[in-house]
Amino acid sequence: MPESNSDCPLCGQSNQCAMVAGLPATRCWCMTQPVAPAALQQLPPERRGLACICPECARPLPPMQQSLPI
Ligand SMILES: [Zn+2]
Description:
The protein contains two helices and no strands. The chain is largely without helices or strands. It has one domain (1-55). The protein starts with 36 loop residues before the first helix and ends in a 12-residue tail after the last helix. The mean pLDDT is 84. The structure holds zinc ion (ZN). Zinc ion binds next to helix 2. InterPro entries: Cys_rich_CWC.
Protein backbone atom coordinates (compact mmCIF):
# COMPACT_ATOMS: atom_id res chain seq x y z
CA MET A 1 0.00 0.00 0.00
CA PRO A 2 1.58 3.26 -1.10
CA GLU A 3 2.11 5.83 1.56
CA SER A 4 -0.45 8.57 1.37
CA ASN A 5 0.78 12.13 1.49
CA SER A 6 -2.67 13.58 1.79
CA ASP A 7 -2.57 13.68 5.57
CA CYS A 8 -0.75 16.08 7.82
CA PRO A 9 2.36 14.44 9.33
CA LEU A 10 1.84 16.42 12.51
CA CYS A 11 -1.83 15.86 13.34
CA GLY A 12 -3.03 13.27 10.82
CA GLN A 13 -5.83 15.43 9.46
CA SER A 14 -6.23 16.10 5.76
CA ASN A 15 -3.64 18.64 4.68
CA GLN A 16 -5.98 19.97 1.97
CA CYS A 17 -3.06 20.09 -0.44
CA ALA A 18 -4.11 21.07 -3.95
CA MET A 19 -1.63 18.66 -5.53
CA VAL A 20 -3.17 15.72 -3.67
CA ALA A 21 -6.54 16.74 -5.08
CA GLY A 22 -5.09 16.85 -8.59
CA LEU A 23 -5.06 20.62 -8.78
CA PRO A 24 -2.07 22.81 -9.67
CA ALA A 25 0.19 23.61 -6.73
CA THR A 26 -0.48 27.27 -7.35
CA ARG A 27 -4.03 26.65 -6.15
CA CYS A 28 -2.86 25.33 -2.80
CA TRP A 29 -3.61 27.21 0.40
CA CYS A 30 0.09 27.24 1.21
CA MET A 31 0.65 29.69 -1.62
CA THR A 32 -1.40 32.33 0.15
CA GLN A 33 -0.88 31.45 3.79
CA PRO A 34 2.48 31.63 5.53
CA VAL A 35 3.73 28.39 7.03
CA ALA A 36 5.28 28.58 10.48
CA PRO A 37 8.96 27.56 10.39
CA ALA A 38 8.49 25.98 13.82
CA ALA A 39 5.88 23.64 12.36
CA LEU A 40 8.18 22.57 9.53
CA GLN A 41 10.93 21.77 12.02
CA GLN A 42 8.63 19.25 13.70
CA LEU A 43 8.23 17.25 10.50
CA PRO A 44 9.87 13.84 10.49
CA PRO A 45 12.83 13.93 8.08
CA GLU A 46 11.48 11.10 5.96
CA ARG A 47 8.32 13.02 5.19
CA ARG A 48 9.88 16.44 4.81
CA GLY A 49 9.34 17.72 1.29
CA LEU A 50 6.84 14.94 0.57
CA ALA A 51 3.83 15.43 2.78
CA CYS A 52 2.28 18.81 3.28
CA ILE A 53 1.10 19.90 6.68
CA CYS A 54 -2.43 21.14 7.21
CA PRO A 55 -3.43 24.79 7.49
CA GLU A 56 -4.03 24.41 11.21
CA CYS A 57 -0.54 23.17 11.96
CA ALA A 58 1.03 25.66 9.55
CA ARG A 59 -0.51 28.54 11.39
CA PRO A 60 2.05 30.43 13.47
CA LEU A 61 1.57 30.32 17.20
CA PRO A 62 -0.78 32.99 18.47
CA PRO A 63 0.93 36.05 19.90
CA MET A 64 1.73 35.89 23.57
CA GLN A 65 -1.00 37.29 25.71
CA GLN A 66 0.96 37.37 28.92
CA SER A 67 2.00 40.97 28.58
CA LEU A 68 -1.47 42.40 28.83
CA PRO A 69 -1.64 45.36 31.20
CA ILE A 70 -3.34 44.46 34.42
ZN1 LIG B 1 -1.93 19.32 10.79
